[in-house]
Amino acid sequence: MTGRAARLPAYALFAALLASAGLPIYIHAPKFYVDEYGVSLTALGSVLFGLRLLDVVQDPALGWLAQKLRDRRGTAVTVAGAVMALAMLGLFAMPAPVAPVLWFALMLTLVFSAFSFLTICFYAQGVAKADSLPGAGHLTLARWRETGALLGVCLASVAPLVLGVGLDRPFAGFAVGFAILALCATVAMRGEWRAAVLPMESGFGTVLRDAQARRLLLIALVNAAPVAVTSTLFLFYVELALEAPGWEGPLLLLFFLAAAAAAPLWGILAERHGPRRVLLAAMALGIASFGGALLLGPGDVALFALVCLASGAVLGADLTLLPAMFASRMAQISPSAAEGFGLWSFVSKLTLAFAAVALLPALERAGLQTAAGTSSDTSISLLIWFYAGVPCALKLLAIALLASAKDVETS
Known about the structure:
Layout: H1 8-20, H2 23-37, H3 41-68, H4 73-92, H5 100-131, H6 137-163, H7 170-188, H8 204-208, H9 211-241, H10 248-273, H11 275-290, H12 301-333, H13 338-365, H14 377-404
C-alpha cells in the first residue's frame, strides 16, 4: 500500500481525537461538575438534553455546511479543531467564571458543535478514501478508523482517573493533553482533505428517500442507546453499586482495550461472512455478556472485570461494522456523504441526550447521592437496572431491526 492509501494511520489518529471528545465527555463531565461544583443531576441532564435538541437543527445544517466548504475543508477543519480544543480547556482546565451550569452548557455547546462538524467532514472524506483503496475499502478503512477511535476512547476515559493519582487537577491535565492531540491529528490529516473532489448532492432528501439508508439510521439510533446508557451511568455504577471507588480507571481501560483489540477481528470476520451476519452474532453475544452486570453487587469487581472484557470485545463490532455498512451505502447513493453523516452524527448523539435526561433525574428523585452522600437502597437497585437491564432490552430491539432488514449489507 503506497501513496494516499499508506496514510491510513492519520485516519486512526484523527479518529482517536474525535473519540476523545465523544463518550469520555459523557462519562466524566457530569460527575466532574457534580463533585466540583455541586450541580444537580437533574440540571446536568437537562443541559445535555437541550444540547441534543440543538442538534436537531445543527447537525443536518453542519452537514450542509461541510458540503458547501468542500473546497476549503482543510481550513474549516483546522478552525473547528482549534475551537474544540479551547472549549475543552474551558470545560475542565479553568474555574467556571459564571454559574457552573451555564459554563457547562456554553463549553459543551462549543465542544459538541466542533465535534459534530469534524465528525461529518471526517466520515464524508472517509467515503472517498475507501473508494481509492483496493478490495473491501470501506471495511479496511473502518478497521483503521474505529481501532484508532477505540484507542482514543481508552486513553481519554482513563486519563483523568490515572492523572488523579499524581496531579492536583487531573482534568486540567486531560484538557491540555487533548489540545496537544488535536494539534497532532490536524497536522497528520492536512493533505487528506484535498484527496478527492466531492460532487454536489441534492441534500438530505437523497439519503432519507433511500430505504436502506433509513433502515441503517434507525438501527444506528437503537443500537447506540445501550452504549449511551452505560456511558452515562458507568462511574456511578462502579462507585455506588459495586462500592469500588478507585477501580473506575482500570475497568474502563479494560473495557475499551478489549473493544480496540477485537475491532480488527470483527472486520476480518465481516469480510468473510458478511457484516450483517457477523453484527447480529455480536449483538447476541453482547446481551449474554453484559446481562451479568444485573447480578453483581458490592465487592464484585473481579466478576465485573469479566463483564467489561466480554462486552468491550462486542462493542468493537458495533463501532466498526455499522459505520462501514452506512459508508458503503453512501458511496452508492450520495458520494459526498456529508449530509448522510450529518444525519448519522445526529442519531448517534440523540441517544446520549435521552439517556441523560431520562435516567439522571430519575435516579436523583430516587435518592441517589454521590461523594459524601448516602444513597437509598431503592436508588441503588434502580441504578443497577438502568445500567444493565435497560441496555439489554434496547439491544434486543436493535437485533430485531437488523434481522428484519435483510437487504441491508455492505458491498
